[in-house]
Design brief:
The protein has 334 residues and is of the alpha+beta class. The protein folds into three domains: 3-94, 3-Layer(aba) Sandwich (Rossmann fold), CATH 3.40.50; 122-180; 185-317, D-amino Acid Aminotransferase, Chain A, domain 1. The protein has nine helices and 15 strands. It has helices spanning 14-22, 53-62, 79-90, 97-104, 106-115, 217-230, 260-268, 273-283, 292-295; strands at residues 3-7, 26-30, 44-46, 70-73, 123-124, 140-144, 153-156, 176-180, 185-192, 195-203, 206-209, 238-245, 248-255, 299-304, 308-313.
C-alpha cells in the first residue's frame, strides 16, 4: 500500500486526511500537538511539528516511506519548507526546497519576479539599525521576510517607522523589505492544474468571485503561470495577491497553502475541494477540480479565522436588475 506523510493534523486538515484514506493511501500524520484532531483518523500519528525537519525525516524513515510514496500538507504556508525537505531526502516528487524557499522568503521572491519580467511594487533596502525611508512623502509597506500576518506587515506614512519585533523568529528571520505602496484594485488569483479562480478583494476580510480581472486577464494569468513553471509549482495550488491600477498589475505576494476563498465557495455550492486537491496531489488526476466558469457566483465571502466565515448570495440582497458588486475600474490592464 502506498503511503503519504501528512504535515499537520489540525481541524482544517481533517478533510484532506479523510480524502487520502478514501483513495486507499496509508496516512502517516504529524502535528506538534499530541491531541491533534487528525491523530485518530490517520493510520499512524507522530507528535512532530512541520518545522522540525529532522523529526519529520525520522518519522518517514521509521514508517518506511520511499520514493514511490507521497508528501502532502494542507497546513500553513511555512509547512512547505518541511514538506519539500522531506520529499527531497526521500526522492519523492515535490517542488524543490530552493523553489519553496523563493516563495516563502520575500527577499528572494521579489528578485525572482523581476528576473522573469513580472511586475511588483518597487522595493528598497531597509536596515533596522538605521530605520529610514527614501522619500517621506510616499507611503510604504514594511514586510518581514517570512511574514504572513499583520504583525509582520506595517504601513509606513510620513517616514514614521513603527516599533519592529525585537528579535528574529519564524516569520522574521533576517530582514525586512521596504515596499512602495501601489494604489489600485486588489485581487486574489488562484492557479491549480491549468484552472484559474479570481476574487475581487473588497478588504482583507471580504471578497467577491469575479470571472476576470480586466481586459488583460489572459496576459496576467500567463505571466503568473510562467512563475509557477519556472519554479516547478504546477503540482501545487498557488495563490497570488495582485494590485491593479490604470497602468497594469503588480504582484504583492504568493501563497502555497490551500486556497481558503475557493474552498468556502465550493462548500457553499456543495463541492468537495479538499478531496479534489488531494486526488490531484496524490494521483495527478485533475478532473474533479472545479472549473471557474462553473463555480464563479455573485456571492460575498467574508470573515476571519477567529470569528468564522460566511458566504452570502448577493443576488438575493438586491432588487432585480441592479448590479450587486462594485464594477471594475474602466481601462484596467489596457
Amino acid at each position: 500500500m502506498r503511503q503519504v506523510l501528512f504535515l499537520g493534523a489540525n481541524h482544517a486538515q481533517v478533510p484532506y486526511l479523510r480524502a487520502a484514506r478514501r483513495l486507499g493511501f496509508r496516512v502517516v500524520a504529524t502535528d506538534r500537538r499530541p491531541g491533534a484532531p487528525g491523530a485518530g483518523i490517520a493510520d499512524a500519528f507522530h507528535p512532530v511539528g512541520y518545522d522540525d525537519v529532522e523529526g519529520l525525516v525520522r518519522v518517514a524513515e521509521q514508517e518506511g516511506l520511499g520514493a514511490g510514496d507521497r508528501v502532502f500538507t494542507a497546513a500553513a504556508h511555512l509547512a512547505f519548507e518541511g514538506a519539500a525537505a522531506v520529499a527531497a531526502h526521500l526522492g519523492i516528487p515535490f517542488p524543490r526546497p530552493d523553489a519553496v524557499a523563493t516563495c516563502l522568503d520575500k527577499t528572494r521572491f521579489y528578485p525572482a519576479l523581476a528576473r522573469l519580467g513580472i511586475p511588483h511594487p518597487r522595493c528598497h533596502p531597509f536596515d533596522p539599525r538605521r530605520p529610514r525611508v527614501p522619500d517621506p512623502r510616499l507611503v510604504y509597506y514594511l514586510k518581514s521576510d517570512f511574514g504572513k500576518s499583520p504583525r509582520y506587515c506595517y504601513r509606513v506614512e510620513g517616514g514614521r517607522i513603527p516599533e519592529l519585533p525585537p528579535c528574529p523568529d519564524a516569520f522574521y528571520r533576517r530582514a525586512f523589505v521596504l515596499q512602495e505602496e501601489v494604489e489600485g484594485v486588489h485581487y486574489r488569483v488562484d492557479l491549480l492544474a491549468g484552472r484559474v479562480a479570481t476574487f475581487l478583494k473588497l478588504s482583507d476580510r471580504a471578497c467577491i468571485p469575479q470571472r476576470v480581472i480586466g481586459p488583460g486577464h489572459r496576459e496576467v494569468v500567463d505571466r503568473l503561470r510562467a512563475f509557477t513553471r519556472a519554479f516547478g509549482l504546477e503540482g501545487l495550488p498557488t495563490k497570488f495577491d495582485l494590485v491593479v491600477d490604470d497602468g497594469g498589475f503588480y504582484v504583492l505576494d504568493i501563497g502555497l497553502d490551500p486556497p481558503l476563498r475557493l474552498r468556502l465557495l465550493c462548500e457553499h455550492l456543495g463541492l468537495d475541494l479538499p478531496g479534489a486537491l488531494v486526488r490531484y496531489a496524490l494521483r495527478g488526476e485533475p478532473d474533479e477540480l472545479p472549473l471557474w466558469s462553473a463555480v464563479c457566483r455573485p456571492v460575498l465571502i467574508a470573515g476571519t479565522s477567529e470569528a468564522g466565515y460566511r458566504v452570502e448570495d448577493l443576488l438575493a440582497r438586491v432588487p432585480a436588475g441592479e448590479v450587486p458588486v462594485p464594477a471594475a475600474r474602466a481601462g484596467l490592464l489596457r
